[in-house]
C-alpha cells in the first residue's frame, strides 16, 4: 500500500515491464475513512513509453490484473 500523500512507487507489469508512476493519496472530506490512490505516469518518462505499449493493436482485449507493487522508489522521501 502506498504511503499517504504524494510519492512514486515501483510496479512491475507482465507486458509493460517496470513502471515508476507518481501517485497521490487523497482523503475525501465526505469519506475520511477512505483514501483513494491516483497513479499517473510522468509525461515523457520511460513509464509513459512502456504504458503506451499496452495500447498497441496486438495487446489483449482482456484486462490484465496481474500487475504487482514492487516497492517505493528510492529518493522519494517515502
Question: What report would you give on this structure?
Answer:
The protein has 78 residues and is mainly beta. Helices cover 9% and strands 31% of the residues. It has one helix and five strands. It has one helix at residues 46-52; strands at residues 6-13, 17-19, 22-25, 37-40, 68-72. Strands 1, 2, 3, 4 and 5 form a five-stranded antiparallel beta sheet that branches. Strand 1 and strand 2 form a beta hairpin. The longest helix has 7 residues, at 46-52. The mean pLDDT is 78.
Question: What descriptive keywords fit this protein?
Answer:
78 residues, mainly beta, 5 strands, single chain
In short:
By secondary structure, this protein is mainly beta.
Written as H for each helix and E for each strand, in order along the chain, the element string is EEEEHE
What is the CA-atom radius of gyration, in angstroms? 14 Å
Distance from N terminus to C terminus (CA atoms, Å) equals 12 Å
Uncertain ranges:
none
- Per DSSP E runs of 2 or more residues, the count of β-strands stands at 5
Question: How much helix is in the residues?
Answer: under 10%
Largest sheet properties: 5 strands, antiparallel
Question: Which percent band covers the strand fraction?
Answer: 25-35%
Count of DSSP-assigned helices: 1
Content-based structural category: mainly beta
- Report mean pLDDT, rounded to a whole number: 78
Q: What gross morphology would you assign?
A: elongated
Amino acid at each position: 500500500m502506498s504511503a499517504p500523500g504524494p510519492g512514486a512507487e515501483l510496479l512491475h507489469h507482465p507486458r509493460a515491464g517496470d513502471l515508476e508512476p507518481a501517485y497521490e493519496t487523497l482523503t475525501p472530506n465526505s469519506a475520511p475513512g477512505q483514501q483513494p490512490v491516483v497513479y499517473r505516469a510522468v509525461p515523457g518518462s520511460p513509464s509513459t513509453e512502456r504504458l503506451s505499449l499496452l495500447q498497441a493493436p496486438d495487446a489483449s482485449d482482456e484486462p490484465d490484473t496481474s500487475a504487482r507493487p514492487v516497492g517505493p522508489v528510492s529518493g522519494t522521501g517515502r
